[in-house]
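Whiteboard transcription, Tuesday session. T.W. wrote the C-alpha cells on the left side:
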C-alpha cells in the first residue's frame, strides 16, 4: 500500500493534508461517483491505520479520535457496491496486528446499527 508507506515513514505529517479529502470521499453519496470515492477513502484509511503501527500513543489516540466519526459516516453511507471495499479495508487494517490496538474500532463496530442515518439498515 502506498499510503501505508507514506504514514509509516513520515508519521502524521501529511495527515492534515489528507483529512479533508478523506472526509469528502467517505461522505460522497452521489450515484455516479460514490463507489470510486468510497474505494479511495477506504484505501487511504487502511494505509493510515497500517502505517500508524509504530506511532507514539498520543498520535495514535488523536488519529482514532478523528477516524472514528469518519468511519461512522462510511458505515452509514455503505451500499451494496461499496461493502466489499470497506470489508477489505477493515481486514487489511487489522491483518497480523495486535487486536488490543483496535479498541476504538471495535467499540465503533459494536454500536447500535439502527442509531445511524442512511445505510442498509434504514434503507430496508
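and on the right, the sequence the group agreed on:
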Amino acid at each position: 500500500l502506498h499510503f501505508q508507506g507514506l504514514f509509516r515513514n513520515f508519521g502524521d505529517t501529511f495527515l492534515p493534508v489528507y483529512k479533508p479529502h478523506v472526509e469528502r470521499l467517505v461522505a460522497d453519496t452521489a450515484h455516479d461517483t460514490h463507489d470510486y470515492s468510497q474505494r479511495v477513502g477506504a484505501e487511504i484509511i487502511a494505509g493510515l491505520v497500517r502505517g500508524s503501527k509504530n506511532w507514539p500513543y498520543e498520535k495514535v489516540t488523536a488519529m482514532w479520535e478523528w477516524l472514528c466519526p469518519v468511519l461512522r459516516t462510511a458505515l452509514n453511507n455503505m451500499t451494496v457496491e461499496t461493502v466489499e471495499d470497506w470489508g477489505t479495508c477493515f481486514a487489511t487494517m487489522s491483518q497480523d496486528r495486535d487486536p488490543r490496538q483496535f479498541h476504538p474500532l471495535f467499540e465503533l463496530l459494536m454500536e447500535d446499527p439502527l442509531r445511524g442515518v442512511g445505510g442498509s439498515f434504514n434503507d430496508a
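Someone added at the bottom: Helices lie at 2-10, 15-27, 34-51, 57-76, 83-94, 103-109, 119-123.
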